[in-house]
Structure formats: C-alpha cells, structure tokens
Design goal:
Layout (H helix, E strand, L loop, with lengths): L7 H9 L9 H11 L14 E6 L4 E3 L3 E2 L10 E6 L12 E9 L13 E9 L1 E5 L6 E5 L4 H4 L1 E4 L13 E11 L22 H7 L3 E10 L5
C-alpha cells in the first residue's frame, strides 16, 4: 500500500474538506473564532511533514485522505505506518520525541448541527519511532516498532469506534499525529464531547496547544449510518 503524499496534494485535500483553513490569514481566523465563538476548521494550517498510512486490517480497508468507510469496518483500532520525504524535514524525529495519534469527529452529532463537536474517539500516546532508510527510493520511511498500536502505545483515551447516528449524513473522522518532548505528562480530556472544553467545535486544537504538542501529520475518512 503506497503512502499518501505529505506535500501539496495532501494539503489541498485537507483544505477542501475544511480540516485546515484555505488561504484565510490568521488574523481573520481569529476574528471568525471570536464572532462565531468556534473555530471554522478542525486544525490550524500546518505543513504535513509526515504522512499517515492507516489501515483496518480485519476489514481490508485503508484510510486515504477522504475515502468513505463503513462503520462496521472500523470497529477495532487501526494499524499504521509513518512516512517522511527526508530526515532534514524532521528535526524532531529522534529518541527524545514522543508521538501521539488521535482520532476526532468534528461532525458530531452532524455536520449541520455539530452540538457534540468535537468528539474524542481515541488518544494513543508514548509512540516512539525508529527511522530506516528506504531501499526503493530516496525517501526515509519512519515506522512504529510494531504495526499493532496496542503493543507499542499507551491509550490515554480508549478507542471508541466511529458510529455516526442515523440521518446525520457523512461524518469526517480525522486522525492527527502530534509530536512532543519525551517525559511530558499529557493531560487526559475530562470527557469525550468537546474534548472536555465545553464549547462547540472545540477539541484537538485546544488539547494540542494545552499540552504543548505540534501537528506533524493528518489523514481522514468519511463514514455514515446506513439509515439516511
């Protein structure tokens, strides 16, 4: 399975799906947040230095920047690989870096009425990576010690399988890879809805900032209930 590109094509898809801003300057974003009392996108703009190849092996499904996957195929936590174009772009990929993978639903309970947004579905942390040179290209492939996350990470929040309610349309389920220093104790969200912040459309952005984490990658899929 080929990894998605972490470059311009990935950013275009994230912008098109309103996961990151599409050319809106930060000062205007701040005004929008103040007026609406909620952020217009899931994440602030960032450069995806690592691409996430995420799969659900038991269902033979892979997450591919906006493909659609049935809720029945994502009942168990996924496996994943990380890929980077070069070590020069990854100054924080060393033994002192800890990675955290999260899954969030910005469309709970629906995209038109996101009163439970964001919903925290998963926080897997203490993920350490070991770089290995690729023999087929000039890229550097960064892979976890094991593709089974349960063997290599601590679950700060256990995996809650995506289960979009009936007649709520497609939900975006967004995986975000965060990086931070080794030894930093992460604060567990008080609850899953709104990631404990008590405000509509608030979640992973707030949590990452509170814990001093940097966004280095993202991937997502759509899922919806059969009853529409």
């Amino acid at each position: 399975m080929n990894p998605p590109s972490p470059t311009a094509s990935a950013k275009r898809t994230l912008k098109k799906s309103d996961i990151i801003p599409d050319g809106i300057p930060l000062p205007y974003l701040q005004i929008i947040r103040t007026v609406l009392n909620s952020p217009p996108t899931v994440l602030d703009d960032f450069h995806p230095s690592i691409s996430l190849t995420i799969s659900y092996p038991s269902a033979h499904e892979s997450v591919d920047l906006g493909n659609t996957i049935s809720p029945s195929d994502v009942e168990s936590a996924p496996a994943f690989e990380l890929h980077a174009p070069s070590t020069s772009l990854l100054p924080i990929t060393n033994t002192n870096t800890i990675y955290t993978l999260i899954l969030t639903d910005p469309d709970a309970t629906s995209r038109s009425s996101p009163k439970m947004s964001e919903m925290c579905h998963w926080i897997a942390t203490n993920l350490t990576l070991s770089p290995s040179l690729s023999t087929t290209s000039s890229a550097v492939s960064i892979s976890p010690l094991s593709h089974n996350l349960h063997k290599t990470t601590d679950e700060l929040i256990s995996y809650l399988a995506p289960s979009p309610p009936p007649k709520t349309g497609k939900h975006r389920y967004v995986f975000v890879l965060l990086a931070g220093p080794e030894g930093k104790e992460l604060k567990k969200p008080e609850e899953r809805p709104h990631w404990g912040y008590g405000k509509v459309r608030h979640g992973v952005r707030d949590w990452a900032q509170e814990n001093g984490l940097v966004i280095v990658g993202a991937n997502f899929f759509y899922s919806q209930n059969k009853k529409q």
